[in-house]
Amino acid sequence: MSTITFDAVSVGDTLPPLRLEPVSRTTLALFAGASGDHNAVHIDLDAVRRAGMPDVFAHGMLSMAYLGRLLTQWVDQRQLRQFGVRFVGITQIGHQITCSGRVVEKFETNGERRVKVEISTANQYGETRIVGDAVIAL
C-alpha cells in the first residue's frame, strides 16, 4: 500500500488489479470456517446437485472480501467511508478472479476530500461476477 493523495488522483485512474488463484474446494472450506457461513451450496456437492446446480460455488462474501483486499492494498482501511456491492453472477470452482477498480468521482464532504471508486470482479472469461463502489477519504 502506498500513500495516495487527493491531488495525485484523477477521475479515470485505475487501481492496481488484484489477481487471485483459482477458487478451490479448500478455499471454500476455509472461508466457511472463518465466516461461519456453512451453507450447503458452498460445501456440500450432494446438496447442491439436489438444488439443480452442477457443483458447489463460492460465497458471495468471499468475493466481496477480495474486493476489500483490492481497496486496502491501495489505501489504509481507515480511509474507507463506504463500501457496497451487488452480486451479478456465480463464481464457480476453478474460476480465477481478478478484482479491479476505477476512480469515477472526486468530491468533498464536510471538509473531507474523497474519491468514489467503481469496483468489480471478473472471472478468467471476462464475465463480471460482482459490481460495486467505494468511497475513500484521501
UniProtKB/TrEMBL annotation:
<feature type="domain" description="MaoC-like">
    <location>
        <begin position="22"/>
        <end position="118"/>
    </location>
</feature>
<dbReference type="InterPro" id="IPR002539">
    <property type="entry name" value="MaoC-like_dom"/>
</dbReference>
<protein>
    <recommendedName>
        <fullName>MaoC-like domain-containing protein</fullName>
    </recommendedName>
</protein>
<dbReference type="InterPro" id="IPR029069">
    <property type="entry name" value="HotDog_dom_sf"/>
</dbReference>
<dbReference type="Pfam" id="PF01575">
    <property type="entry name" value="MaoC_dehydratas"/>
</dbReference>
